[in-house]
Amino acid sequence: LKPKSPPEYRGKNLKEHREFCRSCEVAFRLLPEEFTIDDDKVIWAMQYLGGDPRELWYAHYEHSFEALGTTPSWTYFKQYLLDLLADPINRSLDAATAHAQALQRKDQPVRSFATYLEVIEEQL
Predict the structure, then answer these.
(1) Sign of the C-alpha dihedral, residues 75, 61, 83, 88?
(2) Does residue 52 contact residue 84 with C-beta atoms inside 8 Å?
(3) CA–CA gap between residue 63 and residue 60 (Å, rounded)
(4) Phi, psi of 49 (to 5 degrees)
(5) Which of 14, 62, 91, 98 has minimal Cβ neighbours within 10 Å of its Cβ?
(6) C-alpha angle with apex 73: 68 to 79, nearest 5 degrees?
(7) Which residues of 64-94 are buried (b: 16+ CB within 10 A; e: fewer)?
């Protein structure tokens, strides 16, 4: 099996972040023997960063990890990219507001609305 490369991640929004991480994680599941440790996962995913996230991550990585001869966990990497979108407190406040104001559209399937709520709730 050869997994599809994830799309370049440019840090536009939460949806892009979620899709990038999911795409990477599918590759990890398809080739578990290639991605046995977080080092492999993070280094592989780093090549698909673009724009500001790429510049900011590489500066952070070189200063905080490479200089010490370590690599962050996959969870840390995902959280760092997420925190570049908005600081955690503001992101949580935005999610709480969106959740409180969420309304199902007239033609929106129940499952679609439930998924929308689940995505918001992940940020609370």
Answers:
(1) positive
(2) yes
(3) 5
(4) -85, 145
(5) 62
(6) 110
(7) eeeeeeebbebeebbebbbeeebeeeebeee
Q: Residues for the chain: how many in total?
A: 124
pLDDT digits 0-9 by tens, 11-60: 999 889 999 999 999 999 999 999 999 999 999 999 999 999 999 999 99
Helix H or strand E segment including 106: none
Specify the pTM: 0.76
Q: What is the 3-state secondary structure (H, E, C) of 43-72?
A: HHHHCCECHHHHHHHHHHHHHHCHHHCCCC
Tokens of 109: 């399937």
